[in-house]
């Protein structure tokens, strides 16, 4: 699914915050997402860009590439955003695969290409 959010925001950081809240609260699923982020925008707003990537509640957040790349790379994790799934509300799944670096309790993978 491709989602383009047109939101009247006074600044790029405000847009990032609005878009992140929309994705986390309105879209179904927490498996993966792709963020299209122009390098010039990221360079002009590095803190806001990083906050957006940190705050997105997806198991794989991939910048400027197909989110399935997280599945293909053994060092990353693939699975729903860790934290709020139960057997009564599985959502995008429970558990993760990958994590060949054996991090304790990874919440998500973030890839920037």
Write down the domain tally.
1
pLDDT below 50 for ≥5 consecutive residues: which ranges?
none
Q: What is the approximate shape? A: globular
Mean pLDDT: 92
Backbone CA Rg: 14 Å
Roughly how much helix do the residues carry, as a percent range?
Answer: 25-40%
**What is the number of E strands?**
5
H-E order: HEHHEHEEE
Main sheet overview: 3 strands, parallel
Protein name: Aldehyde dehydrogenase domain-containing protein
Structure in a nutshell:
The protein has four helices and five strands.
Model description:
This protein has one domain. Helices cover 31% and strands 16% of the residues. It is built from 4 helices and 5 strands, in the order αβααβαβββ. A 3-stranded parallel beta sheet has the order 1-2-5. The longest helix is centred in the N-terminal third of the chain and has 15 residues. It is globular, with a radius of gyration of 14 Å. The two termini are 21 Å apart. The model has no long low-confidence stretch (mean pLDDT 92).
Identify the notable features of this structure and list them briefly:
two-stranded antiparallel ribbon; 113 residues; Aldehyde dehydrogenase domain-containing protein; alpha/beta
């Amino acid at each position: 699914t491709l989602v383009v959010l047109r939101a009247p925001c006074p600044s790029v950081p405000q847009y990032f915050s609005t878009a992140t809240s929309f994705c986390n609260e309105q879209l179904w699923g927490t498996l993966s997402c792709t963020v299209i982020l122009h390098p010039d925008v990221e360079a002009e707003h590095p803190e806001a860009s990083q906050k957006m990537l940190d705050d997105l509640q997806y198991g794989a957040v991939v910048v400027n590439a197909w989110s399935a790349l997280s599945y293909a790379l053994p060092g990353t994790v693939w699975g729903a955003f860790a934290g709020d799934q139960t057997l009564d509300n599985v959502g995008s799944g429970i558990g993760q695969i990958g994590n060949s670096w054996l991090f304790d309790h990874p919440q998500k993978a973030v890839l920037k290409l």
